[in-house]
Amino acid sequence: MHTGSGGDAFEREVVILADGATLAGSWSVPPVPGATHLFEEPGALDRVAMLARDWFGQRLAQERIERAAS
Prior knowledge:
Blueprint: H1 7-19, H2 44-69
């Protein structure tokens, strides 16, 4: 965990908030193990980008299916 001035307490709060975060419906925000709120750790930002890509890909595909059905 990053140890900047007061960073540890802030990062614990971010983790607590992220653990309880949910999006519309039954989707949740998965944690990125070992990542701090700035995603400075090696590979952390890449993991976040992949999760975002997958999430948007699923939502956009679902939207296309729903539009085609109506």
